Amino acid sequence: MGCLLSLLMCFHPHALPLRAISILTVFASLLWAGRMAAQDLPVPQNSAAILKELDKIDQGAKAHEENRRSAAISQIQAAANSAPTAVELYLKSLENTKYLETHQDYVDWSRKNQELLHSISFQTAAQLQMRYLAVALQRDERHDAYSQISECLAYLETLSSQKSLRKESPDSTSADDSPNSSENKNQKKTAKSTSTDKPYPEAIALINQSVNKSSVVEWLQISDLLPDSDFEPCAGNYQSIMEKNVRKPLRAKNDPRILKTWDAQIARETATTTESNSKQQADTFNQIRLPDLLFRKAQDTAAIGQPNRALSEVMMLVRNYPANSSMQDWITTARGLLTNPPVASTAISTATNAAITPTPTPTNSSAPAALGSPVPAH
Q1: Do residues 295 and 314 make contact, with C-beta atoms less than 8 angstroms apart?
Q2: No. of H helices and E strands in the chain?
Q3: Percent of the chain with pLDDT over 70
Q4: At a CB cut-off of 8 Å and minimum separation 6, what does 262 contact?
Q5: Cα dihedral sign for 63, 65, 71, 77?
Q6: How far apart are CA 336 and CA 331, in angstroms?
Q7: How many other CB atoms are there within 10 angstroms of residue 99's CB atom?
Q8: For the chain, how long is the longest CA-to-CA vector?
């Protein structure tokens, strides 16, 4: 900067316009400031005080987050205790988010959807979403995925038993419901409109909505408190919840309880398929879905250190489903188990197996016991 000022002094005061001199002076100041910024400041003399300040701020931030979490959990758990209360919280959040600036639209919408809002289907969906959201909020460093396994399994048991949240099958009509019989048509229509378990598309959409996209989360501003890994965000996705929230932490610890999760899922899907009264669904389950579930169970059996049992299960699949499209995968797996069995890992004590109690699978004397129970085709 000094050199630049010396250069300016070489000119006669009237040789340069005043504006040009001002611009050059500012430019020189910027150059000087840049040069000073390139140099570090001296070491702070109060490092201990700064660290203490940072610790205090950090503690305050964590305390604030815990207070927000506790308040949200308290409110959501209260809503999850009853279906009407869950719907009430849902409506309140909807009114304060989507309809915040259009209250009359909210009034019109709620009046128009009174039947939906009072249906068992929608109230069940709202209550289960609140219950699952509470589980999500409780996930933290002290309550990891493994510690929540029993809670997630209990939730899945409740979810899977809700007929009002299952999509109606187009092939669920009985032989007596002939399309040519107007009497049967009228009876079927009446039964559908008055059934307490009638599934509503809006209810199914709600339970299948990601919790971090819900109006409750938006209204309470708690999206940052939800887990971002090892947690299925959709409260209605049974299979993904079982995989992410339950089986993944069990696999990480080589916990043999993982085998019972497959038994529980097979039993549940068997019962659901049977209840559908659909021959097409029964055939698909027996020939495709059931063998796939049993094969995946065999893979986990090998992974926890039981390769011989896994080989036996895979061989039963090979022998009983010769036309299955996964035959080559089964054969490859069986050969690998024979020639290169996995090394047995130290597993969690089986003393905790009672924490997972699968629903008993219905028996069928015509099917091998180890292969589960095929659904009778109607």
Answers
A1: yes
A2: 18, 0
A3: 73
A4: 293, 294, 296, 297, 300
A5: negative
A6: 9
A7: 18
A8: 113
Residues 265, 249: Cα–Cα separation, whole Å: 17
Environment class of 348 (CB within 10 Å of its CB; exposed 0-12, middle 13-18, buried 19+):
middle
Let me know the angle formed at the C-alpha of 52 by 51 and 58, rounded to the nearest 5 degrees: 90
Across the chain, mean pLDDT equals 83
Task: Note if the pTM is more than 0.85.
Answer: no
Pick the closest to residue 169 from 273, 266, 270, 267 (CA basis).
273
Q: By the 8 A CB rule, do 278 and 378 touch?
A: yes
**CA dihedral over 12, 14, 20, 26, signed as positive or negative:** positive
Residue 362 neighbours by CB under 8 Å, 6+ apart? 267, 270, 271, 274, 373
Half-sphere exposure (Cβ direction) of 192: Cα atoms closer than 13 Å:
12
CB distance 188 to 177 below 8 Å:
yes
Distance CA 163, CA 201 (A): 13
Our CA angle for 117, 118, 120, nearest 5°, is 105
Region of residue 140 (left: phi > 0; alpha: psi -120 to 50; beta: else): beta
For the stretch 230-256, pLDDT in tens is 899 999 999 999 999 999 999 999 999
Residues 6+ apart with CB under 8 A from 311: 302, 334, 337, 338
CB atoms within 10 A of CB 149: 22
Q: What is the pLDDT of residue 124?
A: 97
Confidence of residue 62 (pLDDT cuts 50, 70, 90): confident
pLDDT band at 74 (very low <50, low <70, confident <90, very high): very high
